[in-house]
Design goal:
With 384 residues, the chain is an alpha+beta fold. The chain contains 13 helices and 12 strands. 43% of the residues lie in helices and 16% in strands. The strands form 3 sheets. Strands 1-10-9-4-5-8-7-6 form an 8-stranded mixed sheet.
Amino acid sequence: MDAKEEAKSCSVSVLTWEQVSRLNEVLTEVVPVHGRGNFPTLAVRLRDIVARVRARLERRGIAVKDVRLNGSTASHVLVQDVGWSYKDLDVIFRVDLPHEADFRLVKDVVLGTLLDFLPAGVNKEKITPVTLKEAYVQKLVKVNTEQDRWSLISLSNNDGRNVELKFVDSIRRQFEFSVDSFQIVLDSVLAYYELARATPMTPAFHPTVRGESVYGDFDAALAHLEGRLIATKRPEEIRGGGLLKYCNLLVRDFRPASEEEFKALERYMCSRFFIDFPDIGEQQRKVEAYLQSHFVGEEKSKYDYLVILRRVIDDSTVCLMGHERRQTLHLISLLAFRVLAEQNAIPDASCVTCYYQPAPYVRDHNFSNYYVANQNIPTWLPCN
């Protein structure tokens, strides 16, 4: 076995029956895809939409190399109750996308598949792909460069459990940290559903399912997940440096596998974050979007998250001028204050006095309505 084959075998493992059972639960669970306006909610099982999209892609001439469950859902399948509830149902279709027309075809296939899930009695003939996109698509992304060729279609769920279908030709970086590096190959399970029909899975009769860690070492990554340890490689390659996800892991009681190593890695994370998001407005939009998408149903953790984010930036940022650093820290303080206000942790705005004017880059008028002097507000919140 050469070095490449040995590395590949090290990154792959066969799932146990308990893991396959959890995978089956994820794939057969009914997930609502919520429509905007008067459009009805779609009842979708992941196994159904994945199988139909794959079949239609292949009928239209796009071969699917394999289909994989990715992200926090894959981590949940491997280790239950690790400290976070899985959010988006993230599925990867590995395909070739050599031409612009292939991206359009993928989008048309997914939108056309949504018609299958509309309730009986809906007149499907009058519903166009544009209408379906406006009604059910939360996010539509296309990346088409020399090194990265992929697209993402995210279907809306009001509880933060979006169905995310990603079509990947090539992508340079598929993970941020070892604990989110897992991908579970679904082809054998999908074949089981098709061939076994209604036959339930049992410990003695279930498909063989492979998992892979794109971090490199499956056993090491699994040990990190079980032990709530944070490990990564080359954070400067991650857009945003992995800074926001790193602080999310910290707030969930994960800890660096090596404290000494992560002091240096934190500096790389902060530097890459400010390279990718140099403008204060971009920083605000990025942090707010992260809070909105990663803390659904966990609003009480938002404040602790912002405290940790501020501390890491304050301790490890070496690439900013003094006024830029203060500006960013001030922004995070204001966001933390707003989170407290939303949670009713401070008095109503009509009962308090504003002792300062927010910085001019903060455009949210809500900031100017609130205060300052309250014992629940930490001392680092800006107050003039």
